[in-house]
Amino acid sequence: MSEWSFTLRLNQALTPEQADAFDHCDAFADGSVAYVLGPADPQQYAAHRPDAAELRELSCDVEAPTLLDAVAQVARNIRLIPGLHAVGVRHDDMVTLGEAAQRCGRSRQSLVQLSRGQRGPGGFPEPDVETEGTAFYSWRKIAGFLRGLGDDIPPVPHDLVVADHALRLADELDGVDVPPGTLRSLGLPVG
To answer: Is 72 in the same domain as 103?
Structure first.
């Protein structure tokens, strides 16, 4: 099984009660999913207020056979927390070579070898950021370089597109009365 890194977007920021439920939920006990909790009194921390979008996201590093399976697993588990559900998913552009390997189907070692070759124009992209011994690269730049080598790299992984569309649709349909015949006509499964 592979470990997949992605960001799951939620319908709302976690409340302190939801964070407590999350912290005590067996489905999240392995630490593969993390959240950011805003301060109880945001006005008190005006200069250091976290980004509102970040408060509605989960950082995920989940083992599963595919990226789609990993997203589905976290989306299912987050519904164990009352009032929360997933509304979308995304990949960040900044990646380690290990995360880039997940996305392109190459081994991490293959990308390490390529990164040790020619760098700069026409060569493997330079890291955008290096912190505490970890290099972070632009996925867009790595994908472009690999396409130049002949690799068939989609701009966005297909599993990510499917997961994001499915979560967005599920969120839009939540609480809406759509007749089963209409759902079938749209090509959607009716359970």
So the answer is: no
Comparing C-alpha atoms, which of 8, 22, 11, 4 is closest to residue 69?
4
**Is 22 within the bounds of a domain?**
yes
Q: Check whether residue 115 and residue 180 sit in a common domain.
A: no
Q: Among residues 68, 53, 63, 60, which one has the least CA distance to residue 7?
A: 60
Contacts of 148 (CB under 8 A, 6+ apart): none
Does 119 map to a domain? Answer: yes
Look up the CATH number of the domain holding residue 62. Answer: 3.30.70
Which long-range contacts (C-beta less than 8 Å, at least 24 apart) are formed by 153-156? 153/103, 153/104, 156/91
> Considering the entire predicted model, what is its pTM?
0.77
Cα dihedral sign for 143, 35, 54, 14? positive
- Indicate if 81 and 123 belong to the same structural domain: no
Structural domain including 111 reads 94-148
Q: For each of the chain's 191 residues, which pLDDT tens digit applies? A: 788 889 999 999 999 999 999 999 999 999 999 998 876 655 555 555 667 788 899 999 999 999 999 999 999 999 999 999 999 998 778 889 988 988 888 999 999 999 988 666 678 999 999 988 899 999 989 999 999 999 998 877 788 889 999 999 999 998 889 898 998 898 888 76
